[in-house]
Amino acid sequence: MNAIEVKNLRKEFKAYSSRSGLKGAFRDLFTRNYKVVPAVNNISFSVSQGEMVGYIGENGAGKSTTIKMLTGILTPTSGDIRVNGMNPHKEREKFVRTIGVVFGQRSQLWWDIAVQESFRLLKKVYKVTDEQYDDHMQHVIKTLDIEPLLDKPVRKLSLGQRMRCELAAALIHNPPLLFLDEPTIGLDVLVKLKIREFLKEINQKYNTTILLTTHDLSDIEALCERVIMLDEGKVIYDGALHHLKENLADGKELHFQFLEQVDLPAVKKLTSGMPVKWDLDEKEQVFIANLENDDLLISQVIAIVVAAFKIKDIKINETSTEEIIRNIYEKGAVEVG
């Protein structure tokens, strides 16, 4: 069974423009010029029950618009949506009891009351029995380590504490489908790891379907076997994450750290005329050479750099997922054999 089915989904918005001059401003009072802009452009995909799928794209690609249509907040311009067997915007009351939603920048908790009071209110909204609540939420509260936070008002929580409570709130009714939009934004590494482990656990324990939208690709790598990539409102890749790496990570990264002061132009000059692209991680002072997976070329670059500068450390890495995806957006649609 599919938790999500989307066919030829489209959402258009009107972009208004103002006429110039006083006469133009007067005319704008009665008629406005506008053009129709597609935010989501005839996309189709399905997500099976129990899948964890990464839904990724650059800012303005249409990710949030899609999530809002899938959760019933926005009505599509055209196309068909079935989520948990229902039309999200037509069967709203019944539908919302089958989903959980966490938006990284928006709260579903009441700001001035204790966290557990918010939980009690949501329990009544979703018509969860005491027995169901106790059975499910004891595990959630313990796993997310939020028991010490239950008596605190939300306004007194740190961002990491609040996000753990937001996640717990989204799961009070133990929904079969969870939408996560930037759930780890601004969080420290330890909180991110805790949330990731929890999401893996509920997926395995309850077969919860998770659609994850994030700019943090480490979240995608840790949780999702499949990714759907969006660009300018269109799906440019839908498939396994490891296929991207196998088919498009045909390069290597050489990481150099030097014992002496070196600048990027000097390093670039060494390999002038060679198929090498250099980057600099300024924080770590690591110079990164991106090049093809060619043993001879790799040996030549290492030999040239070692001969020119005193080396502190060298590492040879596969091209990162972030670099692969950045290249995809620069080149356009993906063809994976």
UniProtKB/TrEMBL annotation:
Keywords: ATP-binding, Nucleotide-binding, Transport. SUPFAM superfamilies: P-loop containing nucleoside triphosphate hydrolases. It holds the Pfam family ABC_tran. Residues 24-257 form the ABC transporter domain. GO terms for molecular function: ATP binding. It comes from the Bacteria. Gene3D superfamilies: P-loop containing nucleotide triphosphate hydrolases. PROSITE patterns: ABC_TRANSPORTER_2. This is ATP-binding cassette domain-containing protein.
